[in-house]
Write a structure and sequence with these properties.
Blueprint: E1 12-13, E2 22-23, E3 40-42, E4 59-63, E5 79-83, E6 98-104, E7 107-112, E8 117-120, E9 130-133, E10 155-156, E11 163-166, E12 178-181, H1 182-187, E13 192-195
Antiparallel strand pairs: 1-2, 3-13, 4-5, 6-7, 8-9, 10-13, 11-12
Length: 196
């Protein structure tokens, strides 16, 4: 952004006597954003039997709106499960892409690509994850890999209070992502995710 002389702009590079200050969106800081855009898919292996089925349906996360809107990702939306592959005429969802904004090697925010919205775990009595404005360092927006690793074929999304992001039991269309005790999510084989 160009500013007038002697104007100091917080968060921008430039001196008080400079003709210009150069600003960078803090959400696009190349030092901590993984530039890869990906879908988040519920991890599956041949040993899993969801809804008594022995084949993978490929369940991905999508911005669902509180009532399943078609308007893309919006502030306060919940995150839902959808099938990763569906005939296009039968779905309203967007094949939403995400990327990780690393705070450390094992702590990341999950940002909706091309937005300023991040996953946020509930604080208090609520259980559902929602989309909120990304705030660097906000504990409710920090996720760890649990029993996996973000660069491996599977990882958990563990929250600031030690719970796991899951849809709670064997997956179904439009189930909402929520927090659950990790041992329970592992019992139902729904604690692990991968990039897709």
């Amino acid at each position: 952004n160009k500013t007038s002389p002697l104007t100091v702009v917080p968060g921008c590079v430039g001196t008080a006597d400079a003709q210009n200050n150069y600003c960078i969106d803090p959400l696009s800081n190349p030092s901590n954003i993984n530039a890869d855009k990906f879908r988040l898919k519920l991890f599956w292996t041949d040993a899993y039997r969801w809804q008594e089925e022995a084949y993978e349906r490929r369940w991905c996360l999508e911005c669902g709106g509180i009532n399943g809107t078609k308007d893309g990702c919006q502030l306060n939306d919940r995150i839902v499960l959808v099938r990763c592959i569906e005939p296009i005429e039968e779905r309203w969802f967007q094949n939403q892409k995400f990327h990780f904004v690393y705070q450390t090697e094992n702590v990341t925010q999950i940002q909706v690509a091309s937005t300023d919205l991040c996953f946020e775990a509930p604080d208090g009595g609520a259980k559902f994850l929602t989309l909120q404005i990304c705030q660097e360092g906000k504990p409710q927006q920090m996720f760890g890999p649990g029993l996996g690793h973000f660069d491996a074929d599977r990882f958990e999304l563990t929250t600031f209070n030690g719970t796991c992001a899951t849809q709670r039991h064997h997956p179904k269309m439009f189930e909402e992502l929520e927090t659950e005790d990790c041992p329970m999510a592992r019992l139902y084989t729904t604690s692990f995710w991968n990039k897709y």
